[in-house]
Amino acid sequence: MYKKLLLLLSICSILCILSSPANAQSRVITGTITDVADGTALPGVTVADNAKSVTTSTNTQGKYAITVPAGAKSLTFSYIGYQAKTVTIASADVINVALNSASNTLEEVVVVSVGYGTLDKREVSSAITHVSGKDLLTVSSNNPLMSLQGKVPGLSITNTSGSDPNSSPSIQLRGVSSRNAGLGPLYVINGIPGGNIDNINQNDIESIDVLKGGAASAIYGTRGSNGVIIITTKKGGAQSQMFYDGFMSFDYLTNELENLSADEFISNRVANKQGQDYKAKTNWLKEVTNAPAFAQKHTAQFSGGTAKTNFFASGDYRDADGIDLRAHKREYGARLNMNHTTDNNMFVATLTAAPRYMKTNNSDLGNFNNALTLNPTYPIFNNAGKYNYINTGFFSNNPVENANEIKAEAEIKELDLNGSLRMNILKNLSTTVMISQISRSAKSFNFRPSTLSSVVQANKITQTNFASQEQLENDQKNIEWTGNYAEDFGKHHFKLLGGYSYAIYNYKRLYAQNYDFPFDTYLWNNLGSGLYNGGAAGQGQSAVASTQNGSTLISFFGRLNYDFDNKYILTASLRREGSSKFGANNKWGNFPAVSAAWRISEEKFLKASLPWVNELKLRADFGVTGNQDFDNYRSLLLYGGAGYFPFNGQYYQVYGPTSNVNPDLSWEKSENFNVGLDFSVLNSRITGSLDYYIRTNKDLLGDYTVPVPPNTQQTTFTNVGTMKNSGIELALSGEVVKSDDFSYNVNVAFAYNRNKFISFSNEIYKGGTFQDVAGLPAPGSPGNIQRIQEGHSIGEFYMLRSAGVNDAGALLVYKNDGAIVQANLASNDDKQFVGNGLPKYITSLGNTFTYKRFDLGIFFRGTFGYKIFNSYAFYLGTPSSQSDANVLKSAYDSGSKYSLLKNSATTAIASDYFLENGSFVKIDNVSLGYRQPLNNKYLKSIRLYAAGRNLHTFTKYTGGDPEQVRVNGLTPGVNDDLNYYPSTMQFIFGLQATF
Q1: Is 94 contained in some domain?
Q2: What is the residue range of 65's domain?
Q3: Contact 147, 139 (CB under 8 A)
Q4: Residue 20 — very low, low, confident or very high, per pLDDT cuts 50/70/90?
């Protein structure tokens, strides 16, 4: 027994001795990791050996210590936002490393979303503009696309009431494309077509890709005619991180219209018997303005996980006031993106959920109009301390009372849900099923109390107070099944996509109203207590309304990407799509596209002769797209109420046809041709693209006059008309200065667009050769001031051509025969084409400076080559304006041409006397930031920043900010509803922190 124990101890001792050399080979390596730019320590850097058997991370001082096994050959240092670096261990016990920022990588791969997939930017053969999330402008706005303003050539983004927190911008790509269908692009959010664009937090955006070429957008068929904007949100990774961004903003009036003060009103208007003095001094514009308008927004983001399972989650809160007294918005939003890959990489699952809740007080866009026109000697309150009843001026009401007493609120709920499952059948073959739902519910509430001065003054017995509720619900359900196959045969590379899409759209509306409630305190919460609609007065017909409608869209699509030797690229796609909106004879349509590119820079002859050219790619594409953005059931014979019929002492509702059936109703068709050049030179210090396009829109939708009988109605909604847009777009980026401490980058975007309306008619429907649009409102009967005519452009002003002003202060105009007469003696036959409200050129210049930890951005934006009809000068800018209404200072400014128009005989006659050059250049956005890395276990870094928006406008236009007059749509350059919502200058102060 003793011998056996001794033998066992001997064996154990020998094993320990033999193992000691191996343990001795394991060793500890230490070091410090810093930023190569400024030498600051980088906490949280991951350090791993080449076998990834051991890992560690740097502390708050950037220091690390790692015990590496005997067989370790190298260490890899990786950190988010920096280039990973691998260092050979050799015999060193101390390894210090300086990491480069990832933004300094010259050969950075740019991944572009092309619809149902992504491509390396070098593989793209169509016109697509890619914008990274980090390149978006710093703005405090309701819509994330305002941060894209001026960044994409050919993309027009305008908002005529930008300081209203509930407003939405008008977005148009490569000019106006339709008469009666939608003009806006299709939004694709994380691969889901038709997403809620206002359910996106700007901080969550990873990238935005704008599909401008027809070959790119044709993959979306009947929804691609106006272009496609693809938004990709951030996703998680193996690196755990928390990020916070919070800012506050202040809006101040800028470029505002100036009307007469009380003293000026007395000396100019009252003295000339054009107004009365009510003995007060009221600055109505100031009284209805909430300046500065304050807003705040806070975003928290969390990401992390492993290489197989990761997540990205964010939450945001925004609280914003408008520049008017009533507008306000409070919203809460969240987003969760989850990704999971099985261990064998066979299945990849994703899940996205994005809810948002908004509570709004809606602005009264007419309140500033009232303030502009009201007599400044009129007091806000009467002697009893009540709101004054006002019945003078243009609009005859008290705007301060309206803003404070009339309520218009809304509650909006949005929810985007989608999930996908991809099966990697083979290394180069996969199939994916994606299911999604996009829903939006909006409840609107309106209330006017019985205490309004207009109600009290009129001694109303009925229709005293008023309340209403409206609920709108939009729901979209999608299922898409795609398959992807890729194969390489030597220098031949193929990618094949096939798919099926099924979408159901549903819309519901419920509306209820009533008058004469016993208490104003009920607001809209007890509609049944009102006595007017359906009550004692028996006025039930307008009390309630409801509707529901829907449509279905089914598609089959495929795409082939081929390139040879990374030099010659060919892409072809086809989408076959059917919609329930279309007539029985035109349910289905085909949307083909083809594009090709030649990477000249990969040719040996160019590499040898021009080695400084890094990328030179010539491309061309052609695609057919559609537009089905019009109301449901327009192809069907619809019935509606047609009065009441008495029978046996009772009245019965009668129904009859309200529309003509059109079995041939179809989508608008757009034929798109684009040729472009992408280039990168001087070690990619200068990059850019140049595009020329022609887009012809055919089968334009509209109502056309038809005979009755055989038709039951006088008009039929059908496809007639042709329009063409053409233009040039240029994008240019350059690294002007690049050093360790200082850099200066410049970005230029330029777009030129021309429009031509070709025809109103076809073989079946013969319409007129023109349509008069842009009708001006009362007072007076100014009529229409623009005409859409065959052979002319959208936006052509058609009115009398002025010949100056006579000694009596009357407007003079030219007749058709060249004779000059007083304007009130001319007729409609004397109108002429006198200018265009559609801009010819839109450009921007972005400048980015960095110095050590400081960054400065200065962004200019300009629009040129168009006219604006100065509606404010026309109605409020002349001495002959309506009696007892306030006017602009220009009416009595001897330096203004409008002060000459003193004769009331020509006051309401529109002419090009009121056309002004709308061109402008803006100092649009200036931002300054400072980043400070922290040697702290709680914080990795902080960044303080400040930004200013709309800081100054250089323009000759005298009607305020020219950008407040819309240039998108069918009547560019005209404010035909007289609504005035002032422009603002905005200042933003924020903090970003990385944990």
Answers
A1: yes
A2: 25-99
A3: yes
A4: very low
